[in-house]
Amino acid sequence: MTPPLLRAEDLVLAYDDHAVLRGASLELAVGARASLSGPSGSGKTTLLRVLAGLERPDAGRVLVGGEVATDGRRLALPPWRRGIQLVFQDLGLWPTRTALQNVADAVAAVGLDAPRRRAEEALSRLGIADLAGRRPAHLSGGEARRLAMARALATRPRILLLDEPFASLDPEARRDGFAWLEEVLADTEAAVLLVTHDPWEVERLGGAALRLEEGRIA
Fold this sequence. Notes:
This protein has a single domain (32-49, 78-217), classed as Rossmann fold (3-Layer(aba) Sandwich). It contains 6 helices and 11 strands. It has helices at residues 44-52, 99-109, 115-125, 141-154, 171-185, 199-205; strands at residues 6-15, 18-28, 33-37, 59-64, 67-71, 74-75, 84-87, 159-163, 191-195, 208-213, 216-217. The protein has a 6-stranded mixed β-sheet with strand order 7-8-9-3-10-11, with helices on both faces. α2 (99-109) packs across α3 (115-125), α3 packs across α4 and α4 (141-154) packs parallel to α5 (171-185). It is globular, with a radius of gyration of 17 Å. It starts with 5 loop residues before the first strand and ends with a strand.
């Protein structure tokens, strides 16, 4: 039987005396789409960071393709070997690098060949090829989000974790954002987990609708 592409088992994480995750578990199959909602401060971003290997839980496991990636405080697989790309709400773009360099550097970091060519293709696909020489500070909010998505997708991730990437956009821009996200995902088998507070985004994405409350997922 094929294992889930991503599996989290009973994740527990506390900061000082505040428990954020209290046995959170989830599964994503190849090509799956799922949304994750929950109250502000419930630990949604923390969960994504644990899945990506950027944060270590106190207990529990993360498996990627059936291989143990995190086992309690031990990282068995570093973030760059998980095939996971995480797009934060604040995007995390490198401010001193141009749009093209942002993407090419990410491609090179995961060991893929021809990083410049892949970067140019990704920018073109997301409709921002003409912005290749600009730095993030000189991009609009929508352009910066396209750049963050281009950087993530150019690395050919197996799993795409999206932390409210459209939260600050107006309704029309959000609809446009979803349209190009779906277009790009149409020819990939990447699993997608989208953190959102918006019921429209949950319905538009489809798939499983998960909710994080009191440190557990329903």
